[in-house]
Amino acid sequence: MNLAPSEEQASIAAAAADFLAKELSIARIRDLGADQGAAAIDDGTWHRCAELGWLGLGLSEEAGGVGLGLPEEVMLFRELGRFLAPGPFLSSVLGARVAFRAGQADLAESINSGETRVGMQVGDLAIDARSDDLILALDEFGGRLYRVGESQPVAGVDPGIRFARAQTAGMVAEYMDQTLLARARVLVAAELLGIIEAVRDMSASYAQTRIQFGKPIGTFQAVKHRCADMAIAAYACAAELFQAALLVEAETADAGFHAASAYVLASNGARRSTADNIQNHGGIGFTWEQDSHLFLKRALVFENLFGPQRAAYRDILAPERHEF
Amino acid sequence: MELDTSKELKEFREEARTWLSENVPSEARPHTVGPELREYDQEWQRRQYEGGWAGIDWEPEYGGRGLSLVEQVVWYEELVRARAPRDSVFSVAFGHAGPTLIMRGNEEQKSFYLPKILRGETPWSQGFSEPGAGSDLASLRTRAVVDGDELVISGSKIWTSYGQWSDYGELLVRTDPDAPKHKGITWVIMDMHAPGVDIRPITSIDGFPHNCEVFYDEARIPLANVVDKVNNGWSVAMSTLAAERGPGFLDHRLSEIVFIDELTEYAKEHGKLADQSIADRLATVRAEAAAIRSMAYYQVSTARKGEMPGSETTAIRSWLVGVQTRAAGLALDILGVEALEWKPWTRQWLSSFSAPIAGGTTDIQRNIIGERVLGLPR
Question: In the prediction, which pLDDT does B5 show?
Fold first, then answer.
């Protein structure tokens, strides 16, 4: 099992990072966030992301996708997480798959091209779902797409995400397959890994330059160790995530176990790293103008995306023994 | 990222699995302090060698199989899967001394010492730490003076694992007391049976003498036992410690997965998962243990043969230590009051306290990650 990203896989990440740095910098995300009446991402940018193939990277070519797999999607989603990209990427990518597998190629194509957006149902909340969009309801048995009726905005914790209570106006597509949740967990784990790596680098850079007692605070073991713990979490999470991506794509018997493991490691790592990142920054880390809180909030949303963590725990405890 | 579905690798795994199912010792490893422990480990190592399973990725000229790191990893996986003995008096030889000699030894040293390790003849011990040089290893003071074609060694070492069962020791000695502390150190192959060597076992908190204090009183070894060059031992020691983080101790690392499988099985059988906090912790530690294996593959995927693993792999050990500590504590909570009896898991919990200390404390490890991986100032 080779877990090192290939040159081609690395180039997907590099191109995505390049685009995101230019077109969706955190400053721009703050601008988008300031207008809570508008969508989290504008139509123009959304369509350009679609043209880059981001919504159909792992879909087969007959489904109108790029024909790559989950490992390649992981490389993209890691960057989406690192840059706190706004917009319903996860639910649209999964939604296109549900539509295609449900035999609705036209709908898949419409999602894939950026024409139709798919938001996500999270408990009673709809996230990034406007009236007339589709919404994905995902559980351990598979996924269903519904048409969104009336959508009532709700103030939410993450300024980069739109929260609403939405009425659904009838099911549009249904795809019952237990591997869909495993796929979703892997993609979210990838975004969470991007978050861990982003705050790791943010903390390390601040610890190198912030001077107190006449020296950079990174010389102090308490700060240094919090930074090191982020690096450790990132390394472990990357390894387990890359393995899970391969196994889920290959549909092996232990795929669900590894997808749940990667998701739990990523959630725990991101929760702790985003909190430690605030502490490393001291007072400025507690402000709205500094970026630390944006990572904390995004990690919180991801941690709750599929209901309680215990659902993932059940899948981790299920196998009798680890498969070698 | 790519799954290896090659027929060769699959066959290699099958072959290993079959051999192990027929050859893993049926008797448990003795938990005693006498010579029977060494005999047991020697016998098991000899059997692996005769079956062609020693030194999977070591060169054939030294008795290895000359295969790649990937096969070595698969072999370690199959070892732990087959519940083969977890510890061995050969672990320093395989995890430390062997890889160091392969990277830094000369031809004569490699062809003399490596085959003896593979054949299960010569256990090694590690003599790095001293009473006054723990985390600050480079301040070590055990002296070695060149006398003709010999080195004369005086001083004392502590936490020498397997000292009482070893034939050779990897020893760091000070050969130039006037040089800056990292520059005057030499890595030598110590003859642990030489006159002037006095080995005294130290009883650990689990009642077992895992380590020794060793006194050297003008003990003599040939100058030819210097690995690499005189006064270049710090750099050799870095190779040794890199090997420790490499695949060398992988069977030991992977055995944590098997231990947690056993915990899971016990918890299920005894209804302990009804306690939701136990179930939560068990699931978490199981996920964490899964990463021990994937990190090994990640490391092997990015490593090249004969090259030193990078500092980022220090993360592997820090992670492992966290899992070991949490799993050992969880085992006690699963046992409940039964843990008060002298059970194997009670013993394992006690011995787990060495994990964040031995081989460099986790505090120092995190300094290394902070400084060498993240570029933080010292």
Answer: 79
Q: Which positions in chain B touch A245 (Cβ < 8 Å)?
A: 1
Nearest C-alpha neighbor of A230 from the set A207, A206, A200, A270 = A200
Chain A hits for B370, Cβ within 8 Å: 204, 218, 224-225, 227-228, 231
Q: Which residues on A lie below 8 Å from B283 (Cβ)?
A: 264, 312-314, 316-317
Per-residue pLDDT reduced to its tens digit, B184-206: 999 999 999 999 999 999 999 99
pTM of the model: 0.96
The one catalytic residue in B71, B130, B244, B288 is B244
CB contact under 8 A, B1 and A247: no
Would residue B244 show up in a list of annotated catalytic residues for this protein?
A: yes
Among the four given CATH numbers 2.130.10.10, 3.10.110.10, 3.90.550.10, 2.40.110.10, the one describing domain B125-231: 2.40.110.10
- Residue B87 contacts residue B95 (beta carbons within 8 Å): no
Rounded distance between C-alpha atoms, residue B197 and residue B220, angstroms:
9
Q: What is the mean pLDDT of chain B?
A: 94
**Which of B251, B256, B294 best tests the A interface by mutation, with the highest count of A CBs <10 A?**
B294
DSSP states of A116-157: S-EEEEETTEEES--TTSEEEEEETTEEEEEEEEEEEEE--S
CATH architecture of B7-88: Orthogonal Bundle (1.10)
List, in order of start, the domains of chain A with CATH numbers.
Answer: 7-177 (1.10.540.10), 180-317 (1.20.140.10)
pLDDT, tens digit, for every residue of A232-274?
999 999 999 999 999 999 999 999 999 999 999 999 999 999 9
Structure tokens at A268: 């725990």
Q: Rounded to the nearest 10 degrees, what angle do helices A89-101 and A179-209 cross at?
A: 160
Q: Do B374 and A200 touch (CB under 8 A)?
A: yes
B103 vs A91: CA distance, rounded Å: 50
Compare all CA atoms of chain B with the CA of A250 and give the residue at the minimum distance. Answer: B3
Phi and psi (nearest 5°) for A129?
A: -125, 110
pLDDT tens-digit readout, A155-166: 999 999 999 999
CB of B2 within 8 Å of any CB in chain A?
Answer: yes
CB of A259 less than 8 A from some CB of B? no
* Contact between A218 and B377 using a beta-carbon 8 Å cutoff: yes
